[in-house]
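wait is this the right file?? whatever heres the structure
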């Protein structure tokens, strides 16, 4: 029995332009944010992890929850944590209730690092992204990407970025 190969629904020129514009802009924005955080010796991944820790009660969160909220794989988080521990920004502690689990905890040095970097980071976001959008653009983008994210969660669950 032969299976019939289904022809993909190719992108129209308009669809292709939207997709490529998104890809190019998002990559350039990410790279620019990396450059803007470099003087603080932080990568975007480090900054994102510190943000999640800074927002957690007692600046501590289970590693598995941190991986999910930061949308990175557990192995990538483990690697980043080693680098960040070496820098003195975070530490890990075993979970008293679950010996297999670990907590990621932001240190005072990590708190100082994010407090110092945050004004430059938000300025970068504003000048490189927000200031180029109208209020309507911002609403439209939020609505569009919330819809795309919801569909991805439906299809793949919370860990679709791993």
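ok assuming it is, sequence goes like this
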């Amino acid at each position: 029995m032969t299976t019939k190969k289904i022809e993909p629904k190719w992108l129209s020129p308009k669809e292709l332009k939207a997709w490529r514009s998104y890809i190019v802009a998002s990559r350039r924005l990410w790279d620019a944010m990396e450059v803007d955080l470099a003087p603080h010796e932080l990568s975007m991944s480090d900054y994102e992890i510190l943000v999640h820790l800074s927002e957690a009660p007692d600046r501590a969160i289970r590693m598995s929850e941190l991986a999910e909220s930061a949308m990175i794989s557990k192995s990538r988080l483990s690697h980043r944590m080693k680098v960040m521990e070496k820098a003195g920004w975070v530490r890990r502690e075993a979970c008293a209730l679950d010996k297999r689990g670990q907590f990621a905890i932001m240190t005072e040095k990590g708190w100082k690092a994010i407090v110092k970097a945050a004004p430059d980071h938000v300025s970068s976001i504003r000048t490189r992204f927000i200031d180029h959008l109208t209020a309507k653009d911002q609403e439209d983008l939020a609505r569009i990407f919330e819809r795309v994210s919801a569909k991805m969660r439906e299809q793949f669950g919370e860990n679709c970025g791993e």
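The chain has six helices and three strands. so i think its the right one actually
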